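Problem 12. The chain below contains 713 residues. Write out its predicted structure in token notation.
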Amino acid sequence: MNMRPSESLKAIATQAAELIMTGGTDSPGLKEMLEQLQESVPVITANAAKLPAAGHEATHIGIWKKTNLDQKVIYERDIKKQLEWPLWATTHRLMPKAGKKRVVLLGESVARGYFYDPAYSVAMELEHTLNGIKEMDGTEVIDLARTSLYIDELVELTHTCKALQPDVVVIFAGNNFASKLGSSLERDDYREMFRLFKKEAFAGIKLYLEKKFEDIIAAFLQKVHCNLTNSGIPVVLVVPGFNLADWKSDETEKSICSSAVADVKKWLDARSQAIEAKNNDDWNTLCNAASIMVDADPSNPLGYELLAAYYRKKGKTDDAIAMLELARDTVIVSRGNNSKPRCFEVIRKSLLSMAPGYNMETVDLSLIFRKVFPGKVPGKELYLDYCHLTIRGIKTAMRFTAQRVTEILTGMKMPVSGINESDLLPDNMVQAAAHFCAAIHNAHYGQQKDVLDYHCIQAVSFSKNIAIPMQQFVHFSTRKASSIVCSAFEEIIMGGEMRQYEGGLALPNPRGKKLMDIALVDAVTDALASIGINISEEVNQMRQNEHGVSTEKMNLLESFYSMDSYNEFNKGQKPVFYQARNISSSFTFIAGKTGKTICNMVYRTAGNADVNEAVKFFLNDDDTAVCELPVSSSWKNAVFELDEVNLRNGVNTIRVEWPFTAIELKEPLLKSADAFMDAMFPVLGEIYTFDIVAGNPHITAGKEKFEAELIYV
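Solution.
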């Protein structure tokens, strides 16, 4: 799928490029332009990649434009594509082949060596590994991997890269293939999936989508065959793996599915039992409860993850891996619009089974990692996040890739035991920055604090110099202002240490989605304290200054307080109010010595008007509700007080518990993906206003928008 900017952004991109070219990086307008370009949602088009006409040499290979140098055809980075440069290798020119064996590497961000690039990359490791083999000495690897590369663009590269006269093409991809599926679904598909869901539940939808994936993979391999192997150019497919041990589903991905009412209630009861059992180390009860969860709702990843925890505790690694793969693949029907890329099992199996029919070799990282590291669930020793590899992961993957390439080019059998990993290693500061970037990335996509702590500690253990960009990040992250206008953000970019994160362009928050980064900033604070740098008081003061509850009304629906991840429910058209599709919603705020604290909420509970149910509010970890409100299918305005005795000096959390809404599953007018998602994952509660204020202000019901009954609690 191609990801193309909207037409309105082209003029902005041109102006920004011209300012950069002329040295106008201090222009006040440039920041605004870059913010618009970085934060704008791309327009998605599913058109097939437009390939150059047969027999014609490509005018472009990615960002490199065909030109002449010393009467030779070369490809040089196109200044008009400068905004894309951070997504590709930093190579300025692709030179003509000069007698060496030439391997061309194509692929997605995992093939870039994301978080290490440009100081260290997959292409560098592959080249050094190949040159350590006697028969392959002098081999060069041309790096055409691109961050955020989609399948149609990859197909285009398999055509245009022929101009570089490769002896072998290595394609390291599969994580981004799922986007092609999403763009291909039409109204009839949603109707059929809903019919299958009513008849066969999640299993029916999964099989339907897997068949479509198989067709997508077959079409992809056919095109690669036409472009490369049919022309006598060998291809090695490297199939990515996934961080099964550490990457967990977030709250959005665990939204309640509209299964039969009895199944949902069974799932909710079993969930409570399983979580309590895990907290009490009662592993047999956990196993039984998690099994009920999986049976009641196989579309929800939580049951599989809890079962995997049981199997890991019992030393049953293979069973744990099987459960975690099923958890990973529930995202095939994605509740989230930003669930991170992954190579589903159907993609993996399709590539492995179909590739030989097109004369392509394969390297299966999932299988390789299990063989090289027996008895372990693949985790943070191999992955920095969900799929991007550590240095150990890259070196292991490239040894096996080098084996396939060597056997193709020499015709000799080459056992992998005879191939040594290279001695190439980035310096300590590069590795420190990689782990810090990984901590940021993990935090922004809903991962647990133990993972954030691990990467922050790894960062300072590699180099204490990472403390400077860490503190700069804490400053601009904690501010209310958009990151890109904070002086600390400018400092971190100018310092250059975070260049490994897409040139630093992945650091700013998406528009309207800035997070307070509580868990991440706390992880950074703890890591800095371990090397003698104490910023905890400074952090607390910044939080109070920027986000503290005061006599001025504060809106808890703002992203700082209502979101802890960039992932949101998968709908194109967003409502103007907050929607809960899970039984729990959490809101964070900062309190000091504020005295009486008042909350004002306008809410409703969608189709639930059961007088025996209530919306309950809990403060921090207290199991006693501080407030209970009646369910209502119409809007209500409620005002309630938080007792100062129960407030913490600093970070506090209000948790809203919504009663499950037993709605009959009816077939909607499925005209879009939004309608399908609403039918599959119903809204349990909605909030139009949720304000918090210190003191005893005058509270109004806000009836300019709603005829809402005012409730004082």
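Discussion. The mean pLDDT is 88. Students who got a different answer should revisit the alignment rule from Section 12.3.
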